[in-house]
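Hi,

Apologies if this is the wrong queue. I'm a grad student, and the batch job for Lipid droplet-associated protein from Actinomycetospora endophytica produced an output file that my downstream script rejects. I'm not sure whether the problem is my script or the file. Here is the sequence I used:
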Amino acid sequence: MSSLPFPVRVAAGLVVTAVEEVQALPRTIVGLPITAASQVLQLSMRAQQVVTELAIKGDTALEGARPVEEAPSWARFDDDTDDRTPVLPRRSPFDDAAVAPSAAATNGHPRPVTGTPIGVAEEAPPTPDALPGYETMTIAQLRARLRSLSVDQLTELLAWESAHADRPPFVTMLTNRIATLTAES
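Support response: The file is valid. Your script probably expects a header line. Output copied below for reference.
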């Protein structure tokens, strides 16, 4: 053990450390820009974390002050449509143009476009009894209602689909569901 006082020993340790750092300076100066940049990035990321933590704490504190709606009043989902009011398919602007009478045929006065050719009655395809409004359903709406239908109802829908719209995704979904129910019985 040394008989020198403690502050003298600490000062000697500082001098030795300074000399070691000066000797290592040529090796560390090469990586200094990278080290400085990484420390700045680390500091900025830590600051972002602190700000985010504060925002989360603020959200938690204010959560009770404002009730949150389950679903906003303006939001509409496929499953929210009322079965009594079918959703009409979107019409193309070209649908009306193909059946509009020319101005010459009406003595220069335009006639209102109705969407059907003059003299031809518009017939709506019959709705299958198994699922009212089926003809206007989207694939998502059909998927939501599949589990409530029996094999007979699904067979009726498949026959209607094949005879009228013949939409491949609908045919596939109905066929797969019939196969699943048949395999389960």
